[in-house]
Sequence to fold (236 residues):
Amino acid sequence: MRIDVITIFPEFFGVLDVSLLGKARESALVETQVHDLRESATVKADGSPDVHRTVDDAPFGGGAGMVMKADVWGKAIDRVLMPLGVLVIPSPAGVPFTQSLAAELSHAPQLVFACGRYEGIDARVAEHYADQGYRVLEVSLGDYVLNGGEVAAFAIIEAVTRLIPGFMGNAQSIVEESHADGLLEYPSYTRPASWRGIDVPEVLLSGHHARISEWRRAQQLARTRALRPDLLPPED
Ligand code: ADE
Fold:
């Protein structure tokens, strides 16, 4: 998979090298390139040079904050987006990012992240690339507002790349983890069997695989019911 990130804070993505993702890059499963948006802001829309490399402007219709410029973003995206690439625009106004969306994106040959700041990117950018036949996804990490798309892009990259076949050492741990089957994960324990007066549930020491599976399933349901009832299928 090829991942391109366009941002006004390219230094932020230095952390890609030290995360789990570093391993995938070394093994050539993922190739990441980070691009400075301001390199596409050297010429104004009228063709004159822009020594300030302006990336934003006041919103039409008024209102607080600044909007990132369509002409600058168009130039930056045109430089990297490939024919089957997916354009991902992190935004609090996007569709919720979920494990199933991560799984879907793990099959894309290219992801291009457009990390907006301020009040977002001129809405014509998403419209234009969708009109051109590209898959364009505005994706939200959750119902809260970040200062920009960088943290969200990083989270999405980590969730997606670990699902690429061959990336994780233990494929079974992906199958069993939280959200893989729509429920929260069961609690896990390791030695010692007793710690600060708290004992590991007896069943886990029994070696009885069917009973262990049953117990874990019950724990998943109880935990999901208590903490995330919205994840449970509706009862009829
Ligand atoms: N940019 C700002 N807030 C965001 C959020 N919650 N999710 C994705 N991108 C964002």
